[in-house]
Amino acid sequence: MTDPNFYQLQNKWSKIYFRDVDETDFQKVRWVKQVVPHSFQKILELGAGGGQFSVALAEQNYSVTALEKESDFVNHIEIIKKEKSLANLRIIQADFYRVQLNETFDLICYWDGFGVSHDQDQLHLLRKISNWLVPQGSFLLEVYTPWFWSGKVCGVERQMGDVLRKYDFDNENCCMIDTWWLKNNPSMRTSQKLRCYSPTDLQLLLSSTGLKMEEINPGGYVDYETGEYFAEVPLHQAMSYTVRLVHKE
User: Fold this and answer.
1) Helix axes 71-84, 52-59, angle to 10 degrees
2) Which letter does DSSP use for residue 61 in this model?
């Protein structure tokens, strides 16, 4: 499983969750509007991190609920909300595996984090999401692919300033492992493990949730030998894919 302090240390060392809201966030909002075929106004983001996507949505006049567990990240979102006077942005500090929400949403989004726990926890979350989603709503879920993370990227190390990062793969449990440490303190390491799912694996997980896959959108690809990023690649090359889930008829 992911280390309990992974996200706090990741942000302490890189400030990755405290970055400004920028054009990439508004690009994601535009992309969401393209791939969701129905109208939506009330949106829930799970694991909102520093809140950049939720803020971008709110600035486009959507009614947004940002759900985030880490207190430092919640405080950061609160600061941005106040600075931008975003009355249409609600922030809830909670663990989405445990929180109870007695309301429904037109659209639910979960980026870059699915698979952080065990299959049974993912199953429990998907069942909750089925209850949080309006009958004609959509759930956009980003899923890591096993073929990319078990391939050439396995064993790759990268340096970002004073921080080092290494990718590995747990073949037995089909998990990508992302380990961070400081260059001057290599004995203190923290790792994130994300369960990777092929679309077929995900379909099996969905079988008892009341949700079904409606559309698959491949994500990008990084060539770690050249450092080049390709935004659009076929599914068999992609680092991740975003699936649009809807209620079963």
Assistant:
1) 20
2) T
Burial, 14: exposed, middle or buried (Cβ in 10 Å; 0-12, 13-18, 19+)?
middle
pLDDT (average), residues 150-174: 95
* End-to-end CA separation in angstroms for the chain: 34
Which residues neighbour 222 within 8 Å (Cβ) at sequence distance 6 or greater?
A: 153, 228, 229, 230, 239
pLDDT in the model for residue 113:
93
Residue-wise pLDDT for 86-124, tens only, equals: 999 999 999 999 999 999 999 999 999 999 989 999 999
Domains and CATH numbers, the chain: 6-144+197-219+240-247 (3.40.50.150)
Burial class (CB in 10 A: 0-12, 13-18, 19+), 46: buried
| C-alpha neighbours within 13 Å on the C-beta side of residue 225 | 2
148-to-30, 66, 107 alpha-carbon distances in Å: 26, 30, 28
- Calpha distance 87→79 (Å, rounded): 13
pTM > 0.90: yes or no: yes
Q: How far is CA 175 from the centre of its chain?
A: 15
Element (H, E) at 53: helix 52-59
Q: What is the CA radius of gyration of the chain?
A: 18
pLDDT tens digits, one per residue of 38-56: 999 999 999 999 999 999 9
CA 18 to chain centroid, in Å, comes to 16
**For the chain, where are the E strands, in sequence order?**
42-46, 63-68, 89-93, 105-110, 133-144, 157-160, 163-170, 175-182, 185-195, 211-218, 221-223, 228-230, 240-247
